[in-house]
């Protein structure tokens, strides 16, 4: 990083962006330097992002596959038993009418078979033959029924989860080309913060140091516990040193607090000292407007980012969903997240010429959003009961029945988007 000092005014600072514009700007900044593609064994790809479309190496299924236990028969019955085929075997063809082989579910249907008779719908004759009436619909899966060789099943940019890994394995892949998860670090600023025990005597408990790494992991980052540092002393040299150390290893450094220009707010001068360039410097959103994203180029030529999260806890989470989530999507080569919508069940106030992100609980069955209480920018009680934020556009208010965008909070493992 550059080390010469500079005033905060010397850092290129675009004017405050409206909320939608800010999302687009940081997404484009991330996409411009998306992580390089790497080849990984399937078992090591969970949480990464497909760097190329997923296609089958063969038709799926690759051969006609019995969907029931029973008898693969040729011609009219009754049939003489001439063998057995189990899953994993390659049977000889049936060449004579009136013959059959016992067949297991998942086994390859022999060439020449005209039908598969279910075992529960068959019977043995006194002569040891198999008799019964096959169903009219074929009882096997045809080659290519699920997919054909080379067909695009999932596009590049798809997040890899266990379902994708299983699909890739069924397609015959041993490895996948993926973009790795970005590495993130967290610096907590504020001499007033306690890291243990109850708040008191003018000091408050740090709620972001323990919480932000979990948010970042759910949004697709790698966060080493050793990369969470703080509280960092409220001095400019301490801020510069902490940022420089964190940027040595991280693609993204998040900071908490110090995003304004108060007497102990040193983030802007520290960014200037490191030669940073703002992508976004404040956003017209409430709560959380003094958020920022800055870009730096390291000595290795790699672009890295600093996301300045406000010190108030709810404002910090709003900065995460507003700036960090779109940035991470770009870095991973994913699409800019599309926001779902819900119908307001109660009115939500506007915030003048700022976008209002209002905490809501979602009734997924009804498709409605219900505002929650305890939503001050310094409060976390409402956040703990919410599913996301309703987006109220500048110059408007939210009325009952309005259909509005929702910024969802990250799902827990195993949950499905509504």
Automatic annotation (TrEMBL):
UniProt-recorded Gene Ontology molecular function terms: metal ion binding; molybdopterin molybdotransferase activity
Tagged with keyword Magnesium: yes
Top EC class for this record: transferase
Catalytic activities: adenylyl-molybdopterin + molybdate = Mo-molybdopterin + AMP + H(+)
GO cellular component entries: cytosol
SUPFAM superfamilies, per the entry: MoeA C-terminal domain-like (SSF63867), MoeA N-terminal region -like (SSF63882), Molybdenum cofactor biosynthesis proteins (SSF53218)
Coiled coil stretches, renumbered: none
InterPro entries assigned to the protein according to its UniProt record, in alphabetical order: MoaB/Mog-like_dom_sf, MoaB/Mog_dom, MoeA-like, MoeA_C_domain_IV, MoeA_C_domain_IV_sf, MoeA_linker/N, MoeA_linker/N_sf
Enzyme Commission number: 2.10.1.1
Cofactor(s) this protein cannot do without: Mg(2+)
Domain MoaB/Mog: 185-330
An annotated GO BP: Mo-molybdopterin cofactor biosynthetic process
Pathway(s) this gene product operates in, as recorded in its UniProt entry: Cofactor biosynthesis; molybdopterin biosynthesis
Keyword terms: Magnesium, Metal-binding, Molybdenum, Molybdenum cofactor biosynthesis, Transferase
SMART domains membership: MoCF_biosynth (SM00852)
Cited Gene3D superfamilies: MoaB/Mog-like domain (3.40.980.10), MoeA, C-terminal, domain IV (2.40.340.10), Molybdopterin biosynthesis moea protein, domain 2 (3.90.105.10), Molybdopterin biosynthesis moea protein, domain 3 (2.170.190.11)
Function: Catalyzes the insertion of molybdate into adenylated molybdopterin with the concomitant release of AMP.
Family: Belongs to the MoeA family.
PANTHER family: GEPHYRIN (PTHR10192:SF5), MOLYBDOPTERIN BIOSYNTHESIS PROTEIN (PTHR10192)
The protein's name: Molybdopterin molybdenumtransferase
